[in-house]
Structures are given as structure tokens and as C-alpha cells.
Queue: 3 jobs
Job 1
Amino acid sequence: MEGDEMKKTDQTIEASDLLTEGMGQLDLDADSEPDFEELDVDKWDEGKGDEIICSAPSELSFSEEPALPPVLRRKRDDLYAILAAENVDKARLIQMARSEGGLVDDEIRKKAWPLILNISDEQTEELPTQEEIEAHPEYKQVVMDVNRSLKRFPPGIPYDQRVALQDQLTRLILRVIIKYPNLCYYQGYHDVAVTFLLVVGEEKAFYILEKLSTEHLRVCMEPTMDTTSRLLNTIYPLINRKNPQLHDYLERSFYFIFSLNSKLSPYLCKFALIIPHEFG
């Protein structure tokens, strides 16, 4: 039995890794998802489980990114040149974000994402109070999801920094759904939110997440799953169009469904952005 479980885990990881590789052709920013290592669950610090934590954030710091190959160094230089121009060529920026290597590094993403989404540095607004946040009907569910999402954070992150990051992620999500009562939180939304939080910090992440939630991800946040289900049904045909080998692998993989929740929530939501561009 134990051998079967290990085999299932290996096949699940293999399927999700292959899918992630194939998604690089389609993603708005092919490298924007943090490449987290598989963690030993026996060594995880579960903290206080589902206890609601929402303390003041502390400064977060992560290790430097590994050295880039020459082709990505050249691409990085080109991206910095585009961003340094008096009139940024957004079309070119988006084109490069969609190409192999994405936007290359987080310093570029910090500048490029707000530009692509037409978010101004001057945007400010009054924050909801802690009482308003905790009074929201989805608050406890958001906290439980965030506190369980240890694998979404960089491995080896100190406990106090991880708690601060979880607190910020909880606030970030609640700020959006408090401001827009018509948007419904869904499990997996925190996977999307944490990507922006890790790169640009809580404030800019809010405006990015707000923009995406009210536009590209809106169909994923409706009261029912009807529209989302229809959208998900386009995934296999879209994968087949872009990568037949990946499509055939997934069709043969019994364990593909197990990888959806843990690995693909951000990708599934990004299809909502990709599909209109692919099929007009």
C-alpha cells in the first residue's frame, strides 16, 4: 500500500511538472509562478492550524534568484531598456512576457505588471478596518485556506516572515471582496493572490488583484460555477492546440485530476485571460 501511495505521488508530480512546462507557451508571464520545491510534510511547521492570525506585517526578504543563462540575460537587458524608455512600448512588453522566460526576474515584474494593467503609482484608497475584515462572511474560510497553503511560500522562509506573509495575504484577499460584494471568494483564489504579493508587496498587489478580479477573473468569482465549468472544458482543446504531446500525456494520466487543486489553480484562472486572446 505504501509503495502504491509513493507511486501515485511520483506520477502526480510528473504530470503536474509536464503540464507546467507546457503552460510556459501560453502564460502571460511564463516564469511568474514561484518555482517552489517539494517540501517534506513531516518537517512542516503547522503553527496553530486554523487559528485566525492577523498581526502587523514585518519586512520580508528572500534569497537571490539563481544565475541566468546568457539568452535570458540578454532578454533581461532588453526588458530593462523597454522599461527605461520615455514612452514604454506596452505591446512589445506583453509580447516578451508571453515568450520563453517570461519577464525573467521580479524586479522587472514589479515595473511591468502595473504598466501592463494600467495601474498608476499614485493610486491610494482608505483601507477597511480590522473589524470590517473579520466581519466578512468569507473571513474564516480565507484564513483557513491561507494557513494551509504552506507550499505556496518559499521553502526555508523563517516562521515570523511566513506568518507576516500569511497575514498580508489574508488582508489582500479580503480587501478585494469587501470592496466588490458581487465577487465571491473561491478556494484557489489565494494561489493567484500570493503570486502578486510575493513580487510587488501588499499595496500594489491589491490594485493588480483588483484589476484582474473585476475583469479577467470575474467569471471565476460568480455565485455559481456554471461559467467557470464551461471555461474549464476548453482547457484540453486549448492544450491540444498548443502542445499535442502534453495533451496526449494528460489524457493517459489517471492522476491528472489530483494535481489540479494543488498545482494548477493559478493556471486555470489564467486561462480566463488567455482564451479570449487565442480564440478572439
Note: The chain has two domains: 2-63+129-279, 70-116.
Job 2
Amino acid sequence: MAEGFGAAYRHGEQDFCNLLAPVLLGAHYDTCDSLPGADDNAAAVPVLLEVAAQMADETLERSVILAFFDAEEPPHFLSLAGQDA
């Protein structure tokens, strides 16, 4: 969603657009033989959980989506499918 507004600056006037989009924070928790989960990205899962706990009582100016992905490693790449959702 975009919100348009006009503003004056020293060279005249200009129309601008603010992008009002949700913030996506993600972590994946899958693993593969050569990349143990905690070394790959699973360490980010507890960080994301802590972010959720810290934001729980906050009034946010925009939507925040917390996404936990699996099947991200080859040959699955399901997190790529999630980006189009």
C-alpha cells in the first residue's frame, strides 16, 4: 500500500510516495548433512521468538510478520515459494 503526499523543498515542489508495507522477519530451522541446524540458521529461531516476546505488548506503527521456514535447503527452496504468497 502506498500513501502519497506532496512537499516543498528548496528547488520547488515534489510529489512523494511513502511505502506502507508490513515488515517481514524470518528464520529457517531446517538442516542438511553439511549444515547442522544451529550453524545454518536455526540460531535465528530463538532470536525471532524473543523479538515476538518483546513486541507482544507494544503498539506498532505497521504490521510485523514473523515467519518460520523449513524446507529451505536445496532441492526444496520452499522459502522462495513463500515470498510470492
Note: The chain has a mean pLDDT of 75.
Job 3
Amino acid sequence: QIGDQLRTDDNRLRLFLVGVIEPVNPNDERWWGDLMPFFYDRPPNFSVQPDTVTLSAIVHPTTAADYFGSDTTWRILTDLSQINVGNVTETAVSLERVDTIMRNYQATLETRLPELIAGYQEELANARVTLFLLSIQSLIFVLYTLTMISSFLLDQSQSELASLAGRGFNSGQITRIFAVEGLLLALVAAPLGPPLARLVLQAWGRLTGTFVPSYIPSESWMLALVAILFGWVTLVTAVYLGTRGSILDWQRRLARPPQLAGWQRAYLDVFLLLLGGLIYWQLADSGSLLSSVGEAAGQADPFLLVGPSLLLIGVALLFLRIFPLLLRLVAWLTRQVDGLILPFGLARLSRDPVGPSRVVLLISLAAGLTLFVSTFENSFANRQAEVAHYQTGADLRVQVPNEAPSDVVTAVAAVDGVQTWSPVFESTVRYAEQLGRQAQMIAVDPDTFADVAWYAPGISTLVMKDMMPALRPGVGDAIPAIFSVGAFPQKKQVGDQVRYVVGQHRVTFEVRGVIQNFPATTGAFFITNLNEIEAAVNVAALSGPWGGSKEVWMTVSPAQHDEVVATVNGSQASGEVVRIVADARQQTRALAANMVAQQALGALNLNAATLTVLSIGIFLMVHFFAAKRRIYEFSLLRSMGLSARQLLGLLSLEGVMMMFLGLLAGSGLGFGLAAVMRPFLSRSLAVALGGDTIHQIVVNVPETAVLYLLLIAFYGLALAALLFTLLRSGIHRVLRIGEE
């Protein structure tokens, strides 16, 4: 109390107690996590000697210097909000430099910032594997889009190229004209692309509350230059190849369109399929290209992550190889259908399948990557919930005093929202032969425990309901128990009898099984029967370090989870205070709060949205100009009696067919990519999974259905805008006699 005196053993110093204080908020940043001024320690004493009590006291600095050996410490406040992604490396280097300077003055710098930064950088390095895959997928999509546009421009300019070649221009002259035009456009696009992308990214960052660096990374400029150079080379190559022929060759190709594209005639799809399969096999076998030992344990060679993408793209390209055959089959099956639009539209698509196949592949890539992101993100969140439940043991674990009567447990379990519950008693016990060997004893009710706790898929092949019958009492006096591998004795077998000290009582257990792990438990442990323990030991009388904890494990309604927490935590039941010691939903939120995982998943979503918008724009552009190129064909059909409504129906049929086939191929591409990338991407995000990996791909059917509807709606709007624009341009006009 205030006014008391404290003396040292030699009576050299006498302290007068002038105040007793405690922190209002121990977690406030002003304490730096160091509560030494309020330190109190009274270790358990099992002898007759007086207790040893350690107190902390705040005294005048002069008194401390005169009577105690001491060190002087300066606490420097830092503005942690100034440390961000852009300067985190520079901050770590500066801290190392300050530490070196301080050591020259025989002083030390104590801070956990370097440790935190190092942990962040390690997680970031792992997450960059995901971002590397993301960049490769985006680059493949962009390069294919550029290739398709180049092929489309070549088709649009084929008559002009054939005319120039027929009038004496050689291939080099024609190619140089288009090369200069393309180079001028590339010089304009190169400096504009990355800044425009940064503006879009900053807008996305403001909407999602994500930090976006103000500078443009050098990698962005490099990727932009690669895309521009590839597009220019593709255009020049396409033009050069297109000039090798006369106007008669062009008219012959119009009369008899090729059934296979150039890359199909070169068997590029087969090559990509074999290459992707080889890389994926090597990745799954060893995780490295040249050796079976990777540089980082548990990490895959990031360059090999391209393999699964190439494998599935090869499969998609093979689908396009059979695309003309499918069109011919459908056209043959519908040849007897009444009406003109369906048979005529299918016959035209089957006659010239190269152009539509480009659009189908574009839609399939965009839809596939979008579905991949949705499926992987849903599987990731589902695994976080499974791991969180396994780490906490149940939806909620409520601790009640050991001496609390049974009606306290009944009152807690009667809270509205609690579905099932099971009593549990946990205690640290000692191996009787070597008291220094300790284990965690978990006493459960075999009849109800399997209703509240279970193994997460992939963590163990055991089933909780199959384990519990082993804990039922037998004919002897020994209490049945299932031991962990690490619990003593080491060479135990089923049927052995083992003695442990529970509190101060020696209890004999019978080994009914040996397992590796158990929910909410790490280290050495064993599972036993709660009723048998309560009959052998007075649990309510246990205290001190061997006292244990009486708990209620329960499952609760997801809709009422937060209400149950608010009602139970800190409440009183029959005069006893109860509190929640573990919350699966809170643990799930903690795992989901991992910054690196959030940024990686956010980047995946942003990438999918960007590619979808790009594919819709290209879908609209290709259809518009392709329809404009067919204006004489449509006018001739109009002069032969085809109505404007039938003409629009024909265009709609072609667009819907390509959209349907593209989404169908994209579904297989997206789900397949999520399945083959599951083990490798989840390793990179293992911290957000509690050190685990995604066990299986989980498809959220309602969410996937909504995603399909959105894709169909967006492509449908693009098709409607196309039809409206074509009508405004006069594509439905009848061909005049003079023009014919």
C-alpha cells in the first residue's frame, strides 16, 4: 500500500512506496510491447522456502545510478506509416547502417523491424511466384491478341496486298510500307501504355484501399517493349507472307477458304501440348528443371510454372483443330431443319472456320483465366476455413472454471445459436518414469466429441468418428488413451500400459492407438476418456501449473456466430465467469488478413477483369470489321429476299455460336488450370494457409453461375452493340443493280 517501505537485504537502500500504477492499455504503442515497469513474477514454489517475488519499481534516475548497475536506453518513436512497399528495402538497409554505427560507440540497437521486414520480404518472394505466373498468363494472352489482330488486318488488307503485288510491287516494298506504319504506331504506344496502366491501377487501388507505388517498375517497361516488338514483328511477318501471291491467288482463297490456320499446319498446338506436358511432368516430379534439389525447400522453380499454362493452351489449340469437324457435324445434322438462318449460318462457319476459331480461342482464354481466378480464390478461402477450424479445434472453445458445477456447462450450451457441444478437459501431465517428460492430456467425451471436432481434409486419413470408440473403457482398470508419436514412452505399442502423473495423482493408461496429430494440439499429447479421468482424479481440486482447463467445444450456426461470441465471452453462468479461448471464425480472419496473399489474390482478380474487358473489346472489333468486309455478301443476300431481321439473326447466330464454344472451351481451360496449379501456387501462399496447402479444388456453383451469366451478358451486350452499329452503317441495304 502507499506508505509502505521496501529495503534491500543489506539495508543500504530504503524505498518509500508513493504510488501503485498499471497501464490503461498494455497494447498501446507507447509501451513497445515491453511492460518491464509493471513486471511482476512469483514462480510456483513447492518447497518450504519463502516465495521469491520479483517486482519492478520506477525510481529517480540518480537513485538508480547510485545504487544499481544500469544501462541507459533511449526509446525512439518511429512513424510506421511511412514504411511502405516502395521503401521497405531501403528502410532495412538504413537500420543495418544505424546498427553498425551504434556498435562503434559500444551501444546496441534493439528493434524487431529488420525481423519483420525480412519476414515480409520472404513472403513477398514466395508470392512473386504467383505474380510471375500471372505475368506469363497475361503476356500469353496479349501476344495471342496481337497475333490475332495482325492476322485480321492481313485478311482485311488482302485485296490491297494482292493488287499491289499484281501491279509490280515486290514483297520487300510492300512490307516496308506496312513496317513503317506499324513502327510509327509502336513509337506512340510504347510511352503511353505503362502510364495508362498505372492510372488504371491507381484507380483500382483507391477503390480497394490497396497501396499502389507511384513509380512504374522497370519490368513494366520491359514487358511493354516485348509486347510492342512482338506485335510489330508479327504484323510485318504476316504482311510479308501475304504478299507472296497474286490477285488470282487471293480470289482462289476467297472461293476455297483454308480449313486450317498456319500454326495448325505447322502442328504448333501439338508442340505446345508436348512441351507443356514435359515441363509439368518435371515440375511435379522434382520442382526444378535440372536437379531434384531446389534452391528453396518446398518452392517450385518459377519458370516451370509456365508448363501447366502451356499444357492447357495446347489442349485448347487441339480443341480448335477439331473445331471445323464439329461445325461440319452440326451443319450436317441441321441441314433438314426448317428455315434458312440456322443451316445457312452453320454451313458458312464450317466452310470458313479459321476466322471464327481465332475468336473462339480469344474468348476461351479470357473465360478460362477468369474462371481459374474465381475457382482458385474460392478453394483458397475454403482451405483457410478448414485449417482455421483444425487449428482451433471447433467453431468455439469456451473455458469455464474447473470447480464450476455442471449446470454452468449446460447454461453455456443452451445459448441460442449453439448447435452441438462436447465437454473437454485439458491439462499438462508428466510421464511417471521421467517427470521432466511432459505431454498434453486431452480428455474428451467419446459420444459427442466427433460432432464438434474433425480432421481437415488432407491433414490426416483418420476419421474422428472412427477413433472415438477406441476410448471406451475396457475390462481392466487402465484408462484407454490414444497417444501421439512424440509422447513418452517412445517405443509404445497398442496394448501397453503407461503411467502419467495427473496433478499429483499417478494414473495408468492403456495405449489404444498411436497417431501423428490432433486438432488444436501440437507437441506431445494423448487423448483419453473424460468420464474415466473425472472418476480417477478430482479435476475441480487441481491447481497450479498442473491444474488444467475445463472447456466446452461447440459448433454454432454460421448466421449467429458473432451473436454467440458476444453473449458467451466474459458472461456469467451460475455465478461463474466464462470466456472464449478459441474462435475458428476469428482465426480464419487472421489467416485471410495476410497482406501478401491479399495482394496476390487482388492482382489475380484485377488481371482477370482486365483480360475480360480486353477480350470483349476485341470480340466487338473483330465482328464489326468482319461484318463490314462482308457488306457485298449481305447486300446480295438482301437482294435475293433475305429480310433485315433474318440478316441480324444470321449475325447473331454466328456470334452466339462462337461465344458458346469459347465459354465451353474456357471452362475446361479454367478448371484444368486451377487443378494443375493447385499444389504449386498454394505453396507460395502457405503462410496465409497456416503452413498448409490447398487440398482440393472447390467449385462454388452459385458464384460460378453468376460469373457465367456476367460473361454471357457482357458478350451479349457487345453483340447487340455490333448489330446496332451495323444497322446504322447501312449493312442491311439491298444491292443496287448497278453495283451488282
Note: Residues 113-156 form the longest helix (44 residues).
